[in-house]
Amino acid sequence: MKTIVVSLGGSILVPSLDSHHIREYATILRELASRYRVFVVVGGGGEARRYITAARDLGMDEATADDIGILVTRLNAALLAGALGESAYPRVAETYVEARENAESGKIVVLGGVIPGQTTDAVAAVLSEYTHAIALFNVTSVEGIYSADPRKEPRAVRHAHLTPGQLLEIIRKNQLAAGSNTVFDIVAVKVVERSRIPLFVLDGRDPHAFRAAVLEGAFTGTVVCEGPPMALPL
Ligand code: UTP
Known about the structure:
Blueprint: E1 3-8, H1 10-13, H2 22-33, E2 37-42, H3 45-57, H4 62-84, H5 96-103, E3 109-111, H6 120-130, E4 135-140, E5 145-146, E6 158-159, E7 161-162, H7 164-172, H8 186-195, E8 199-203, H9 207-216, E9 222-224
Parallel strand pairs: 1-2, 1-4, 2-3, 4-8, 7-9
Antiparallel strand pairs: 5-6, 8-9
Helix pairs in contact: 2-4, 2-9, 3-4, 6-8, 7-8
Bound molecules: uridine 5'-triphosphate (UTP).
């Protein structure tokens, strides 16, 4: 079975604990798991940002604030693993080795952050290397990668296809700080570039649109790969 890695933004899965999309995503991930070996890396979202802000206000250094962010990603991951029930390995993996060991169960493997200084996008990219994934999906709260931040720059245009080098140029302008909100982590792009893993950046605010994109080819985000753009479904 071919492997895919899904980087599921915390702001998508758990915008807040009162209104989350965990059930919908659990259903879709189960369907994906009937076709692919699936690893899901869950982000921290708004809750992680709030904890990181509190940590900074209390005088903690950036790496310690990152550690706190990682704990929140793992909490979100634990909620997803629980909702997946029998379909997922019950424990959230904390390392890449654990993730690969957990995959031997044949079940969906869920994890959050791994080490300070990056985001869960980087975890997902490195995991894609370790697992020889055929694709990495970055499920985020924008419709793809734009020439500038579309929330700040109304004339920003969405790219349907980029090479990893072009994406690096776009992202280099952004800063890597605990809780920073760039569309895709620079560490992750460098990994995608060196391993030539096709990266699909897509809007996951509507879980059904995510399903249609991955399984039915109704993809309208940005594909990042060398050569001609790859098409979905894989
Ligand atoms: P996220 O991956 O959620 O970052 O990790 P994000 O940019 O806020 O992404 P969205 O909004 O969920 O899509 C939350 C924070 O946890 C720490 C970082 O501080 C990050 O900003 N983190 C996460 C790490 O330090 N290392 C990791 O491996 C993962």
